[in-house]
Amino acid sequence: MKVLVLGAGQLARMMSLAGAPLNIEVFAYDVGTGNVVHPLTQQVMLKGLNTAITYSDVITAEFEHIPHEILDICEQSGKFLPTTDAIKAGGDRRLEKALLDSAGVANAKYHLINSRDDLTAAIDTVGLPMVLKSALGGYDGKGQWRLKQREDADRIWPEMAEFMAQTDNQAIVAEEFVPFDREVSLVGARGKNGDIAVYPLAENTHTDGVLSLSVALTGNEALQNQAEAMFRSLAESMDYVGVLAIEFFDVGGKLLVNEIAPRVHNSGHWTQQGAETCQFENHLRAVAGMPLGSTALLRPTAMINILGEDRLPTDLLSHPQCHIHWYGKEKRPGRKMGHINVCADTQEQLDSSLATIASYLDPAAFPALKR
Ligand code: AMP
C-alpha cells in the first residue's frame, strides 16, 4: 500500500514511521518545491505530482493550506481522502464556519468582514470584545487582532485592510470573544465503513497562540461524550475518512468548537506512547481501508512541544517514562522542532514527572511547564 501525503513536514514523517510495520509506504509531496520526497530523509524519490499520483494507491494531506489547483488534480484521480472539501474548509475560516453551522455543531458567534461597513456590522452582531481572524492562511494565532472598544475600530481598520489586500480572496472572520475556562481537543478517526474511534480529550496550553503542552484527560465522561457527539456529526456530515481533530473552548462544561484540523494534529502526538494505537497509524489504517485500531488510553500521558530548540539535556532520556521525538528540522526561533511525550502510572505521578522534567529545561523555552 502506497500513500502519498501532500506536505513533507513532521506529520508526514510520523505517518511514515507509523506505517512501516503495516507495510504502508508513505511518500511526501513538498508543496513548496514540487518534489516528491522520502518523509524521513527528504531525499527526492519521484519527479512531479502526476508521477506521484500514478504511483500511489491513496492520497492524503498533512496540512490544509494547499493550493486548490493541487487539491483539484488529486480529487480527479479519485484517490484522495479524507475529502478535498474538508481540506479546503480547514484552510478557509469562512468554509469552516459554514461547515460547523451545517453540521449543527456549536461554535463562536461570527460575522464576515470584507469592508469597513462590515466591521461596524460585526461589532453590532457579534459584540465586544471580539477576535478578528484572517479567513485564509491563519494558523497558530497568526493573522489575528483583538478589538475591545468601538473607538479602536478606526485605528485597526487600515492594518486589517492592508492585510486583506495582500492575498487574493482574503477576508476577516469576526468572532465573539469566548471567556473559556480551558482549551481541549478531540482527535478521532472515521474508517471507510463509517466506524468511528476517538481518543480521550486532551487539555491544551498555548503560548503566544502556539500549542506548548497537551495532557490526555481522564475521568471526564460528560465532556468526552459531548465532544464525541460533535465529532460524529461533523465527520458524518462530510463523509470523512481519516483522522480529524477538533479544538474546543470549554466554557463551564459546555463545548464550543474553535477550529477543526482535517488531519493528524499536534494535540494528538501524546497517542504515540499513551494510546493503544497512535493517531498516525489510525489515519493510515482509515485511508487504507483497514479496521481502525483501539484508541484506548494506556496510561496518563502528556506532550510537551519543543519550540525553537535543537538540543535538550541528555539526562532527560534517563527519565524512565520520557520519550523524545525530533523532527530533523533546522533550528528557527519558535519553530516546532520536536516534542517530548511523558508517561506515568498515575495522574499524580504524571504531575510530578512533568515537574522533574521541567527542572531540566530552560523556563524561557518551556513556559507552559509548572516549576
Ligand atoms: P486559533 O488560531 O483560532 O486557534 O486561535 C489561537 C488562540 O487564540 C486560541 O488557541 C485561543 O487561545 C485564542 N482564541 C481564538 N479564538 C478565540 C475566541 N473567539 N475567544 C477567545 N480566545 C480565542
Automatic annotation (TrEMBL):
It catalyses: 5-amino-1-(5-phospho-beta-D-ribosyl)imidazole + hydrogencarbonate + ATP = 5-carboxyamino-1-(5-phospho-D-ribosyl)imidazole + ADP + phosphate + 2 H(+). The keyword Transcription does not apply. Pathway: Purine metabolism; IMP biosynthesis via de novo pathway; 5-amino-1-(5-phospho-D-ribosyl)imidazole-4-carboxylate from 5-amino-1-(5-phospho-D-ribosyl)imidazole (N5-CAIR route): step 1/2. GO terms for cellular component: cytosol. Keywords: ATP-binding, Ligase, Nucleotide-binding, Purine biosynthesis. The keyword Ligase applies. ATP binds at residues 93, 133, 138-144, 175-178, 183, 206, 258-259. GO terms for molecular function: 5-(carboxyamino)imidazole ribonucleotide synthase activity; ATP binding; metal ion binding; phosphoribosylaminoimidazole carboxylase activity. Its EC number is 6.3.4.18. Residues 97-288 form the ATP-grasp domain. It comes from the Bacteria. GO terms for biological process: 'de novo' IMP biosynthetic process. Homodimer. Catalyzes the ATP-dependent conversion of 5-aminoimidazole ribonucleotide (AIR) and HCO(3)- to N5-carboxyaminoimidazole ribonucleotide (N5-CAIR). Belongs to the PurK/PurT family. HAMAP family: PurK (MF_01928). PANTHER family: PHOSPHORIBOSYLAMINOIMIDAZOLE CARBOXYLASE, PURINE BIOSYNTHESIS PROTEIN 6/7, PUR6/7. This is N5-carboxyaminoimidazole ribonucleotide synthase. The gene is purK.
